Amino acid sequence: MHSQNQRCYPITFSAHLADSTPRSEGRAAQQTQMPQCSSQNKVAIDSPSPDSPPPYSPALAPSLDCPSVLEDADASQILEYLQTGSLWVVNSRRRNGLILCKPFYAEFAGPGAAVGGVFDLDCQKVIPVGNLSMVQPTSHEARHDAYLIRRQWIRLTQQFTDQTVPLQRAQMILNQFENYFDQDTIARIPDEAFALLVGVLPYSVRMARRRPGKLNVKAKA
Q1: What span, in angstroms and rounded, lies between the C-alpha atoms of 88 and 76?
Q2: Domains in the chain: how many in total?
Q3: Residues spanned by the domain of 115
Q4: Higher pLDDT, 29 or 176
Q5: Cβ atoms < 10 Å from Cβ of 131
């Protein structure tokens, strides 16, 4: 039973997760789906908790005159804003997101997730996905909720990386994006970005993209 301070933040990407059901010859045949909030896959958040993000510091206020809503901006402009320490939230009412490329890995921040602040100062490149729209949070509660949703997106990607076979990991991340975005949007995302998301070589992503059909893979709840 959750206390009054506990909350659950669903990620509305597709349907519920199901348990893994591998098929013959070690090739996992699964259908990966984004988690929704249910009695089996809730992420209960106690407030405060030891791993909760620090509050936004006024000392990190951006030097640029950042608009309250950021739309139709190119990648270089978005990166410039993020590197000032400005905090944004990906619009939760759109099918959009932002791939944040760090020195050795990448993260996908989907709808409702926080981007920027102290956590993305080391971001070297950003890739907008879909019709990206970001807004600046106006309250401490809005920032707190956005941080929690960002953590859920990280946990979701971690489920893909739990697969030991690189080709399966590449196929899982491709399946998820294909279930949510159109083919033109997927085609604009480079192999290197998908590879950094799940810790594989770009070659594995290229091979997964060339497959005639999807591996029917799913992540564990």
Answers
A1: 16
A2: 1
A3: 24-210
A4: 176
A5: 12
